[in-house]
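Colleagues,

Please find the record for the two-part complex below.
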Amino acid sequence: MHKKISIRVWFPAVIVITMVVMVAVVLTVASSYVNDMLYRQSRADMERQSNAVVNAVGRETYRMIDTINNIYYKVIKDNRSSLSVKKQDFVALCNQKHSGIVSISLYDSEGNLLLSSSDYYENPAINKAVFQDVRDNVGKIFFGNPQISFNNGAMNSVIPASCMVDIINNGYIQMGFLRVEFTAKDIYSIIDAYGNTERSYCYLINDKNEIVYHPYQKKLESGIGTEWSLDYIAPDTHYIMQDIDDISWLIGTNNIGYSGWRVVMVNSFNDVHRQELLSYQVVWWIISIMALLIAIIDIVLFHEISSPISNLDEAMKKFSAGDMNVRVPAKGVGELRHLENGFNRMVEHIEILMAEILGKEKEKCHMERRLLQAQISPHFLYNTLDSIIWMIQGKQYEGAEKMVYLLAKFFRIALSKGQDMIPLEQELQHAVSYLSIQGIRFHDKFEVFIDVDDSLNKYLCPKVTLQPILENAIYHGMDGMYGDGEISVRVYQSGENICLEIADNGAGMTEEQVTALMNNKTNEIKIKPTSKGSGIGVANVNERIKLIFGEEYGITVESEPDEGTTVKIVIPRVEKNE
Amino acid sequence: MNRKQMYMVLGMMVLIMLIACSKVLFDRTIDIENEFQVAVIMPADSKYELKGVVQGINDNAREKNIKINMLYASDWDKKQLEDTMLEERSIGSKAVFIIYPERFIRNYEEIEIRTYLPALVLNDKAYENNIINAGTAYYDGIENITAEHIKKADVYRLMTGEIDELIVPAEYYMGYYCIDNLMEAFRRNIMGLMLPVGGDYYSSRDIDAIMNKQMDDVCIPILRITRKEVIEGKFHSILEDR
């Protein structure tokens, strides 16, 4: 079922959703841009640092190569010297300060030691097979992995460099191998100078991806961890970003000329750009918080605006449903408060107007009742006065006197100090006075039977209710009756109501006549008019009762031609204090 | 909810957001303030010998942002050690690592020392009742090891082929993990944790018996170094400490 969504819901919802989408888009784009920028910056930094390390190590290896070339050309190829002389030269070179040379050795083509600057030993570490690569690449210098070397009682880490040479011994030439051991500290110090930390370090590997030197060598050799970045190293110079355990690592590999070594740099992207990432996070937070604040302020402001409008809407609905007491609390600001106050003033004004209209309507009803009463009284008055005149003319003074007395009583009750409602007892006395007067006039043309439940006397009844009915019974019902007419008046309780029943055994009426009687249209049908009654009394009484008590009360007429008529008046039990 | 309450809630939210922002901004400062500080007391005349241990301590401390107060002691008595621990406690040290106290405390075997901080004690051998609460030690697999250090000559013998392999104490490893043990001692408030070092595996040459054990089962971890590995360029940093 389609349900209409209030503007109070969808407008803030649209704004909040728009805000969230916009912030998400901005942050995503910014995040992508910043990450890309930081990556490029990190890579540029790493390239610069890597190049610096590569250049430094390259210079060192070049120096080693230069040293080897000098040894070869100045000592080994010296035609004049014997091997024993050359050994002295080797020792002199090793003893030179800052030469970095630990030992110089010559081997024959089979890999057997010919001479060495060191009195040490024939280093068993030097596997003859290692010269095979040298033999296959004449003219190239091979750098080996670091070795432990003993020289003059000292134990050193050395980096061996080997090449094929022509050995001249007392004028004879033979093929052999030159092996020079350089102190490794010079290379190591270059790597150590990088300022290695756990999250940013560099190390040296050979062409077989074996570690030549690592700043945390001791840690690795002690079995505490391994160098995981070896798995991400490519043979050529390249840089990659790798995510491991929620940390982004930038791994760079850079080849070093001559030696076949490579420098591997490992930087934690998160740590290197921690400050930038922190600033970025702060900006992210600020944007998010600002967006949230704007959304909240927007919702609050919209609530401030929409709430009075919604209240007005609700009040309008209630007002249109007839609730005249509805008022709108004046909580809005500016024009909204004017609207609320205007609505309240309008409702008050309409309420006053409605009260005036109701008052006028009541007044009108009252006037109508008065008018109806006024229509009844003159009939009877001039008919009775007519009878009195007739009796005086007929010298029936006693009867005239009684009639005047009864007429006076009749009018005293009829007036009742201007009250519209009188106790039933008085109404019955009024009816009895009337019947007595008419009885005198018509010389006992009919008999009257009255049966009243005395307990009902206290209840109120619209005055002059029975008299018009009795008048109709006498003038129309008893017409043509000669001493055998009967009129009965019964007053009894019927449920919660009081029933006043007037029956006669007169001429009766047809159904059309009854309808015409009740609708006050006696002129349209043939109800025999008389000169003494208007025939409109029953309808008037009925209208009066309905006006006073409501539509469910009033008069019903049952009549059969030549059988008689029964008029029932039903009124509620209303006591005076009510 | 009336307007006043609504504005109060709004104000509270803004305040919370500002606090959260400040926390993010000053996060680094808080990290520095929370730095853990440890005192390390070692014999002054064993500096070179304990180079590997110290390096392991420093590397682990750097990784875990632990500040190390390194103190070198020589010819101390009981009172000096206890006073030093009290002083360290007053300047913010949370634990103390005492390396070979028998080498710098006079009559070490005859006295009882009270520790005022969670402490880890590294000994040449197992002593009894000289550190209060020493019985709470949780480090198992104590071997009666003699701290016979591998000398340069042993490396020479290895390199010349006289011997095929060397068993050396992994001092870096020990120093590295002693910091972890010390943190554990602090966490569990262990006031005197004895960690006897040494053993007779050098003299007994029962290599297999030692190697069959897990490294953590012996107080001082060992490394088995072969000549081939050295030729390949491995274990140089360990051997250079000799």
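Chain B touches chain A at residues 3, 6-7, 10, 13-14, 17, 20-21, 24-25, 27-28, 52, 55-56, 59, 62-63, 152, 155-156, 159-161, 170, 172-173, 176, 215, 221, 223, 227, 230-240, 242 (CB under 8 Å).

Comments are welcome before we finalize the supplementary table.
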